[in-house]
Amino acid sequence: MPSQGLPLRVATLLTGLLECLGFAGVLFGWASLVFVFKTEHYFEELCEPDGALMGNLTGQADCKAQDEKFSLIFTLGSFMNNFMTFPAGFIFDRFKTTVARLIAIFLYTSATLIIAFTSAGSALLLFLAMPMLTVGGILFLITNLQVVAKHLAVMLTVFLFLLQLLYEQGISLRASFIFLSVCSAWHVVRTFLLMPRGHIPYPLPPNYRYGLCSGNDTTEGEKNAAESDKVEMQSNEFLPAKEETLEPGKQPESRSFWHHALSQRFVCHLVWLSVIQLWHYLFIGTLNSLLTNLAGGNRVLVSTYTNAFAITQFFGVLCAPWNGLLMDQLKQKYQKEAKDKGSSAMTVALRSAVPSLALTSLLCLGFAVCASVPILPLQYVTFILQVISRSFLYGGNAAFLTLAFPSEHFGKLFGLVMALSAIVSLLQFPIFTFIKGPLQNDPLYVNVMLVLATVLTFIHPFLVYWECRREKSSLAAA
């Protein structure tokens, strides 16, 4: 690495971290944002007169119609957050870094300005602003995955937590979101000075330049990138297939994308991801309502627990590498056994994924049980288990797809599983409406059903383990 390029690359890395932490995951700061919106009386006109009176006495009312509006906004935002992953990736692949980032800046800035200039009378604009925020955040995240460690793609929302704290100190909602809009100037500067115009080539060619170092010599940068792509394609021709350790005379069996997409392995993984993700989205989307009920409408208590939740989300970045370390250690262990017993590389990979899948289900089960118990102090444990479970979930999802399916289909399978799980996440709104309506704000029966559904997610790691055992038995018989 040339010495003069080191400061630029460090600046790119650090600013990329800041961008991911502060702007790429607004959705997961929803609890802090709802707290502020309720204090600003958004959708309060939908509350019944008795609910408004309760709000005057306790500081924050539990209003069914108001909570349903916020739940619907979050449902749309969370749906767009997953469903648009595939189109956003296509935009990045087709139009490259600069164009993708300019689209992200436009969406993000427009959304923050809409929120900044909304009021209780124009609260319906939140239905437009939140999806725009999430899609803009996805594009920020995708463009930064080139320079930021993948584990730090855990979506956090530092600024919305700070927004709530500043709001309680007298800083208005409008001032905070105008500040976020002004930050778009920083995004623009970073796009042109600290980011490549195209994709970062791999392996990195010698004297690769971008941003400030590229100057006007874009031809050389494009040439270096093209040469790097050529080297990578040539090197890939001599790499063995990821799925199998081939015996002499055998050729790898090439199977279509749809063969893998319709396989039992992929369908079980989709159900596993969808059920656990639905729990997380339902919890985040209804957290303000849950805390309001458990705190008896005490606004101070609700604020305290909302802050605690936001803080645990921030420290979730420390949990992200654990899953990867677990899988790496197990893979090394099973690789040694495979040399002695002749197991395939695919079997080794799948065996290393089984404990990760089972542990993620176990963490979600613990989080779900704690969330179902109506004891306010227990929610501190819920917050911790929730953030660890979510870190394991998204890291484990990408890792399993990488290990269990051919690399040439990874992008399509990842986009498909995220899009289909996004459709399942839409169930959170009818579930919330059912709790507020027929169940009269008592989520016991829904929680029991969801806990049972979480128990069923253990079927996925069991089937993967059973598949590995069958191959092991067949090898022993041979």
Q: What fold name goes in the CATH topology slot of the largest domain?
A: Growth Hormone, Chain: A
Mind telling me the C-alpha Rg? Answer: 24 Å
Classify the beta-strand content into a percent band.
under 5%
The shape, in one word, is globular
Q: CATH superfamily membership of the largest domain, which one?
A: MFS general substrate transporter like domains
DSSP helix fraction? over 70%
- Helix count equals 19
| End-to-end distance | 51 Å
Order of helices and strands: HHHHHHHHHHHHHHHHHHH
Q: What is the correct CATH architecture of the largest domain?
A: Up-down Bundle
Transmembrane segments: 12-37, 70-92, 99-117, 123-142, 149-167, 173-193, 266-284, 304-327, 348-377, 383-406, 413-432, 444-466
Organism: Neovison vison
Keywords: Membrane, Transmembrane, Transmembrane helix
Protein name: Solute carrier family 43 member 3
Describe this structure as you would to a colleague.
By secondary structure, the protein is an all-alpha fold. The protein has 19 helices and no strands. Keywords: Membrane, Transmembrane, Transmembrane helix. This is Solute carrier family 43 member 3.
Give a quick precis of the structure.
The chain crosses the membrane at residues 12-37, 70-92, 99-117, 123-142, 149-167, 173-193, 266-284, 304-327, 348-377, 383-406, 413-432, 444-466. It is found in: Membrane. By secondary structure, the chain is mainly alpha-helical.
